[in-house]
Each structure stands twice: as C-alpha cells, then as structure tokens.
C-alpha cells in the first residue's frame, strides 16, 4: 500500500513538472528594434578592433613594466591601433547617420521619418505635384542673375 502511494505521488509530481516546464527555446519580446545590417556590421568590426587595441595596450604596459623588448613595438602598434579604433567608431556613427538619412527613422509613438517627395506632394490637396506646372509659384531669383 505504501509503495503504491509513493508511486502515485511520483507520477503526480512528474505530471505537474511537465505542465510547468517550458520549451528550450522561448521567444520573448525585445524592447529595442534590431540594428540595421550595415550598422551592425560596422559596430561588430569596431568592437573587435577596440578589443584588439585594449589587448595591445595591456601588452605594451606590461612589457614596459617588465622592461621587455616587446614594449617599444607594442607601444607603436597600440598608438596606430588607437587611431584605427577611432576611425572604426566614426564609421559606426557615419554608417548609422547614412542609414537614417536614406531609410528614415521610425520612432515611437510618432515617426520623424519624412515621406518620399511624391507622397508628400500627393498628400497636399490643391497644390500641384510638379513644380514646373502652370500656377505654381516660381522659385526665388538671385540678384544679378
């Protein structure tokens, strides 16, 4: 009788565990959107270059403290790598700005992305879409032209 009761308790616990258990892969919503591919590529490149620069600086400092021959070449290498790392960070910034300019930005709750020129012209009723059409105001003229 006790063995049967023990067996029932084990089966009950096992069934309860299976009801509670989640799958190995669970999709959870993320608070941020994924970075665009060109920006992500340049960011990964910059992180790798910065990591290598930090390693070089550490080797240069430890070599200098130990008065090892490697200190001088690693110091020069670390200086050059610092310049390259700065360039890589600027590349991330420029790539991000170019992507935003070309593709617009969708922010929440409102969008600051401008609609393409044709859609903006269609959205304004009563105004011609073509600036050369009759009735449209002429562009301002420069003095002496």
Summarize, please.
With 145 residues, the chain is mainly alpha-helical.
Topology, pairings included?
Blueprint: H1 2-20, H2 37-65, H3 71-103, H4 117-123
Helix pairs in contact: 2-3
Q: What do you see in this structure?
A:
The mean pLDDT is 80. The protein is flat and about 110 Å long. It is built from four helices and no strands. The chain is mainly alpha-helical and 145 residues long. Helix 2 packs antiparallel against helix 3.
Task: Throw out a few tags for this protein.
145 residues; mainly alpha; 61% helix; 0% strand; flat
- Helices and strands, in order, run as HHHH
What's the overall geometry?
flat
Beta-strand percentage range: under 5%
Q: Name the helicity range.
A: 55-70%
Mean pLDDT: 80
Major sheet, described briefly?
A: none
Q: Number of helical runs?
A: 4
The low-pLDDT segments are none
- Structural class per helix/strand content? mainly alpha
Distance between the termini: 109 Å
Number of strands: 0
């Amino acid at each position: 009788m006790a063995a049967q009761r023990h067996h029932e308790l084990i089966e009950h616990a096992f069934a309860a565990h299976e009801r509670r258990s989640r799958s190995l892969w669970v999709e959870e919503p993320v608070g941020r959107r994924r970075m665009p591919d060109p920006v992500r590529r340049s960011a990964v490149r910059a992180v790798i270059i910065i990591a290598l620069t930090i390693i070089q600086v550490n080797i240069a400092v430890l070599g200098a403290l130990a008065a090892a021959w490697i200190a001088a070449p690693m110091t020069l290498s670390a200086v050059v790598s610092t310049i390259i790392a700065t360039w890589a960070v600027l590349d991330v910034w420029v790539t991000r700005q170019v992507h935003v300019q070309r593709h617009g930005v969708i922010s929440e709750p409102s969008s600051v992305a401008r609609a393409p020129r044709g859609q903006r012209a269609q959205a304004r009723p009563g105004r011609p879409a073509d600036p050369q059409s009759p009735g449209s105001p002429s562009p301002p003229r420069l003095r002496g032209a």
